[in-house]
Design a protein that fits this description.
It holds the Pfam family NAD_Gly3P_dh_C. Its EC number is 1.1.1.94. The chain has 16 helices and 8 strands. About 50% of the residues lie in helices and about 10% in strands. The radius of gyration is 19 Å and the shape is globular. The longest helix has 23 residues, at about 170-190. The protein starts with a strand and ends in a 7-residue tail after the last helix. The chain has helices at about 10-20, 30-35, 55-60, 70-80, 80-85, 105-110, 125-130, 145-155, 170-190, 195-215, 220-225, 225-235, 240-250, 265-280, 285-295, 300-305, and strands at about 5, 25-30, 50-55, 65, 90, 115-120, 135-140, 160-165. By secondary structure, it is of the alpha/beta class. The mean pLDDT is about 95. Helix 15 (about 285-295) runs antiparallel to helix 16. Strands 3-2-1-4-5-6-7-8 form an 8-stranded mixed beta sheet, with helices on both faces. The chain folds into 2 domains: about 5-165, Rossmann fold, CATH 3.40.50; about 175-305, Orthogonal Bundle (N-(1-d-carboxylethyl)-l-norvaline Dehydrogenase, domain 2). Bound molecules: 1,4-dihydronicotinamide adenine dinucleotide (NAI) and 1,3-dihydroxyacetonephosphate. 1,3-dihydroxyacetonephosphate binds next to helix 9, helix 12 and helix 13. 1,4-dihydronicotinamide adenine dinucleotide binds near residues 29 and 71.
Amino acid sequence: MSIAVIGAGAFGTALAVSLAANGPVTLWGRDAARIRNNPRLPGVTLPPQVTPTTDLAQAARAETLVLALPAQVLGGFLAENAALLDGKALVSAAKGIDLTTLTGPSQLIARACPAATAAVLTGPSFAADIARGLPTALTLACTDPERGEALQHCLSTPVLRLYLSSDVTGAELGGALKNVIAIAAGAAIGSGQGDSARAAIITRGFAEMTRLATDLGAEAQTLTGLSGLGDLTLTCTSDQSRNYRFGHSRGAREDFDRSTTVEGAATAQAVGAIAEKRGIDMPIVQAVAALVSTQVSVEKLMDQLLNRPLRKE
Ligand SMILES: NC(=O)C1=CN([C@@H]2O[C@H](COP(=O)(O)OP(=O)(O)OC[C@H]3O[C@@H](n4cnc5c(N)ncnc54)[C@H](O)[C@@H]3O)[C@@H](O)[C@H]2O)C=CC1
Ligand SMILES: O=C(CO)COP(=O)(O)O
């Protein structure tokens, strides 16, 4: 199966470098100079098996396209390039919910490219770790069992181990929601609330993730896997996470580079809107939505969370 990675940011570049262990890979990006020398992934050079290109038609000749674009640009990109992409196997690596349509990557693919096979690649994985060839386990979710298995095999490498799931909704919601909770965890640590408060945010955040995902048709078990609890743990506890660092900067009242991709910010607002519509209690997500869209302080939001009525676990 020929492979192209679409999007030459940190994650797309890391995936292309890793997948080169299996054979040739095309890496598409908008800027030729930045594809070869990605400022978001310093020190990483493309192996000869990776062919960089700015020609989307050339990249789209591959049978399998891994879409490594930010969640908020994915819908527009798919709509604009549907003629080239429809009918392919489209594997989204984006972790977010689209703020315009309030849907995840698989629905964006289905809407723009109805003849495509949609799959989701998600789970605990920092681009820098993957690019360095460190061992990583991910979830590959696809509703079609045969195509899912074929993708699992073609996208696994000796150090990148993919576990197959048919629960696309659960897998993509786990990846999207953990970013929101990571912002909350970072904010708690940045504002000096301590490690115990972070553990409470991770645990109660996981309860919120499961509540929403199961309401939307996901299996609860998926949330306990790599794409849910696995990625939540990684992202809430590592300085490598941009979502965590963004939350930390808000808590510590420090500056943050606004050009950084922080998927949890828009996703908090999207999920807040979904939760409100469906009457689902998601106080941590709503607090993060307020944090990213207003000037409210982390301390005030913490007070609001702590002053909620006591309840059963
Ligand atoms: N960096 C990481 O460690 C991981 C990232 N991801 C996910 O991968 C997705 C991409 O993230 P990163 O690569 O890290 O972000 P990034 O900020 O490093 O790169 C984003 C890339 O998208 C391109 N881009 C932006 N708008 C575009 C458009 N309209 N058309 C075409 N290209 C466009 C940019 O030029 C850039 O190359 C996100 O959803 C993220 O959550 C998933 C796992 C790990
Ligand atoms: O998704 C990731 C790790 O699994 C990367 O997290 P950040 O986007 O917060 O850096």
